[in-house]
Amino acid sequence: EKYTLLRGRVLDFHSRPEGEADTAAYRYIEDGAILMKDGKIKAVGAYCDVAAKATDAAVTDHRPNLLMAGFIDTHVHFPQVQVIASWGSQLLDWLNNYTFPEETRFESPVHCEAMAGHFYDLLLSHGTTTAVSFCSVHTASVDAYFSEAARRNMCMIGGKVMMDRNAPDALTDTPVSGYDNSKALIDKWHGKGRAHYAITPRFAITSTPEQMEMAGALVAEHPECFVQTHLSENHDEIAFTAELYPQAPDYLGVYESYGLLTPKTLLGHSIHLQPREIEVLAETQAKPVFCPTSNLFLGSGLFDDAGLRSKNIQNAIATDIGAGTSYSMLQTLNEGYKVLQLQNQKLHPLQAFHWITRGNAEVLGLADRIGTLEVGTDADIVVLNSRATPAMDLRMQCAETLSEELFVLQMLGDDRAIAETYVAGKAMKHTSGKTALAEGA
Ligand code: GUN
Ligand code: FE
Fold it and tell me: How far is the CA of 135 from the centre of ligand 1 (A)?
């Protein structure tokens, strides 16, 4: 395979920057280049240096756009692409009125495959190159999810939701079938290409103690897998969980007692936490996931980013489609910024872009593969146009610093600001699922 070279303004992160002056934390190259081959990054640096290394490389000139690591969405629901923007309820009613009925349609493999195509088209058009997703209870939804990811060569994490109560019959498994089906899916998909499996008990309300025990057995037997669930999103949810698990000291205590908390555990929302739960998060290194657009949409509450960071608890940020209201990690940062403003917490634009790239990759333990532009990592790259709309262009006429530009992207940007998305070195934004298939390999 030939070398390909992308020319543009290059930005990536070594660590979480304190601000623009913290130049040890990030790398910014005004006339930069990324050299790629076989899906990997081979060189990064000043354009003249990198171009000299591969004089026969095919060059794509993205100037004046920014080149960054592809965005990572750490909590999303693939079967909810047709639930997004459903009016009028908070969490439990929203699940019963909109989400569960929609997820029953994923019983059909044909429906799963059609929705997977749309799902990946949406992720890529918004600059997201890796996501961690809940699939439906049906194994066909997981097969469609990972098959479509493999066709596009994407690094994706996901798993079958386990739920055996408080949901429609058509959506429930049993402790044994939930275990057996998850196990079979792990064997089939985990480690295949760029796929990672996540053991996925939906949340405490929809699993019996027997199922939680089986989920814990899976976690013990498969330490290579991720674990994902929901935690303390909504007050009614927390009260119902306390009724269902009267012996647990608190919500997180349920997951703790079944052995579900590991450094690879992702806990969606984690809003209304008790001091003991925060201690347990710090001890177990299970990771809270901030879902700002969803938390505002369902009226769930305000995530305490600074409070968790002060306890050395690293958290991730995510869309939570379909309770989330945008596929865009830029719009997710926009709403996240406002949620933190309501608590007088500051989010610097460099920290924001670190969060959706390297920060999320570190939470996943995958920063040696994705989330940066380091040589040897996978060539998942997003190309950002900070003048994509008239409003952005006008504002950019008065922007003087990199941080100002990033903030314009974060507050005003969406899929229109994504000029291109590269997955394993291939341009994917304008390639629909069907054409990706036709062009195949
Ligand atoms: N808690 C349990 N299931 C869900 C879900 O699908 N979305 C959200 N936002 N919270 C949940
Ligand atoms: Fe969720």
Answer: 12
